[in-house]
Amino acid sequence: MDNNGNKKVSKEEFVQGLMETGLEMSTKEAEETFGRFDTDKSGNISLDELIKQIRPPMSESRRDIVKKVFKKFDKTGDGVITIDDIRSVYSVNSHPLYMSGEETAEKVMNRFLANFEVDGTADGRVTLEEFMNFYSGISVSIDNDCYFDLMMRQAYKM
Question: Residue ranges of the EF-hand domain (predicted)?
């Protein structure tokens, strides 16, 4: 549907794309559907917005382990993970870029936190929602709840 190649789908591209599939839907219905995908109300649907809307929700057991990991990181208990929170639970000593001297410990930790930030907006503060969204994306590629739980526990020494 991304006819102009800008890595986003405009309302016009979306409506046209739906019509080209042969889906019987009025223009109004197509525009309403577009609105459900355009969660940031930018007038375009990004790949992240599309994926977040079509992926299945995580099971309660997966959500629980993700919350436990978040709480482990959130040392201050304020509902936000910052570099200060992760200093005592995330060691950069074995990180290749730190070991080679290419990056400082602070830079490596910022890069780690940036993995969880939404839409490339890295403010050094990760909310539970951002953390949950990150692991929701990983969750869809893991079929078994027990394996997901094991992966999280091993990765974060729980």
Answer: 1-24, 25-60, 61-96
